[in-house]
Amino acid sequence: MKRMGMIFRAKANKALDRAEDPRETLDYSYQKQLELLQKVRRGVADVATSRKRLELQMNQLQSQSSKLEEQGRKALALGREDLAREALSRRAALQQQVTDLETQHQTLQGEEEKLTLAAQRLQAKVDAFRTKKETIKATYTAAQAQTRIGEAFSGISEEMGDVGLAIQRAEDKTAQLQARAGAIDELLASGALDDPSGMAKDDIQAELDRLSGGTDVELELQRMKAELAGGSSSQQAIEGGAGSGNASQQSQSQQQDTPRFDKQ
Predict the structure, then answer these.
(1) How far apart are CA 87 and CA 81, in angstroms?
(2) Crossing angle for the helix pair 81-154 and 158-190, nearest 10 degrees?
(3) Are 26 and 63 spatial neighbours (Cβ–Cβ below 8 Å)?
(4) Lower CB count within 10 Å: N or C terminus of the chain?
């Protein structure tokens, strides 16, 4: 099972390598960085919104505190010290809330500054990545084009390989047809096959062909006899008057040859 799992993972990894396009991967990474940058900016906006709300609350509390102070002054001027004391007590509570809000405001302001700085750094990183991404994509596209051109010239690409195989098959089939046509021509010429497009030979033509063939044989036989006869005469001249017995034998031989030739 472990071996099967390893084989499956290896094949899956190889298939992913073939399907992966670095340009698409770079674009996807850039998109993810843009999404992260958008989240950081959204966080900055949320913190700024919270800070603004605290500022509004503090302004409202400050306004209420000023109003209570004014009311306390009026009550004290009218001799109502109890009302003045109550107004000042409420004002003190409001001031405590204002102090707490100011603390929260400072915290949010610090977070906002941090997020703003992080957003700026991330923005610079995204811009640099975009420039590098486009450079890598352009280089990859150029290298891919050069590779395809080189494969086309060398004939090792899949497309050119298919074209080469098609040409080879066409040449093999052409050669086979040419060989078959030549063999048929030879068989027709030798008479092993009948020519369906030609006229069948009649008996007279066959007899004429046979007689012509026989005449050629007779002429060749006469030529060979003449050569043999000429060779014998030359031998007699060289020996310079051989015995009469030999001359008589040669004469008899010539006489025997001549009637045989006439008979034939």
Answers:
(1) 10
(2) 20
(3) no
(4) N
Q: What is the DSSP string of 15-36?
A: HHHHH--HHHHHHHHHHHHHHH
Cα distances (angstroms) measured from residue 66 to each of 55, 99, 102, 126, 197:
16, 15, 17, 49, 127
Q: What is the pLDDT of residues 126-161, one digit of tens each?
A: 999 999 999 998 998 888 888 878 766 766 655 656
Instruction: Retrieve residue 242's tokens.
Output: 């051989």
Cα 159 to Cα 233: distance, rounded to the nearest angstrom: 81
Q: Which pLDDT does position 38 carry in this prediction? A: 92
For the chain, strand residue ranges (E) read none
pLDDT confidence of residue 76: 84
User: E strand or H helix at 56, and its extent?
Assistant: helix 22-77
The answer to whether 126 and 30 have CB atoms below 8 angstroms apart is yes
Task: Give the chain's length.
Answer: 264
Query: Span 245-260, mean pLDDT?
Result: 46
Question: Which of the pair, 180 or 164, is modelled with greater confidence?
Answer: 180
Q: Which two tokens stand for residue 211?
A: 């007689």
